[in-house]
Amino acid sequence: MQIHERIYIVGAGDSGFGISHDLDCTVYLIDGDGEYALIDAGAGVEPESILHNIKAAGIHPAQISGIFLTHGHGDHSGGAFALSRACQAEVYALRETAEYVSEGNLKAIALEEAIQAGVYGKGYTFHACPVRPILEDTSVQVGDIRLNVYRMEGHCSGHACYEMIWQGKKIVFSGDCIFNYGKIALQAIWDCDLQKYIESCKRLEEIHPEVLLPAHGAFLMSRGYTYIEKAMKKIRGLGIPDNLIGE
Asked: Residue 219: CB partners within 8 Å, gap ≥ 6?
């Protein structure tokens, strides 16, 4: 599903567009003029659905050189093992996420709690996958596209947002940092941190993206900063932005 001259959606479950397994986050495909990269990898239950969508867009999986994880939660990183093998692609993430996913550290990615809470079925299996750490406040090249890497924690440790600039417009892949109507995703897990979340929202406000592409739900192809402004309005009033979790 092409949403932009250089961006496709190739995965999305029940919290998105229902084009792959229901547990999948929204998986974006970036076109770097013949070289491609994925943002996140879905849950890994039916990676063949994502591969089917990639091929349906006229792209061969071998053209995908990198998979960039926003964070380590299962709905984002669980598919990295299968997709990286199918595409022969490197997987990248901030240091903490790279460690958790490479080691298959289920406690660190709060997967045990998520299974107990019924988010994933009891038969869900997470496959560890080699992940190369990348540094925040640096950039990586995907063909003719430069991806800027930002540390945006709060939802969990090692959470990254990625920014690309196309024809002067800032496009941010926000992962689970911020969502439609300025909602955030606070969870009762060990590394969810409200103060870090507030700092991430402030930094997103400074970036001021025109296009905002969250990992769940609706996205904005213009005036993406308005979602961030809604969250910041609550924060400036000493409140907490609306929480997506539990709705």
From this structure: 3, 26, 180, 211, 212, 213
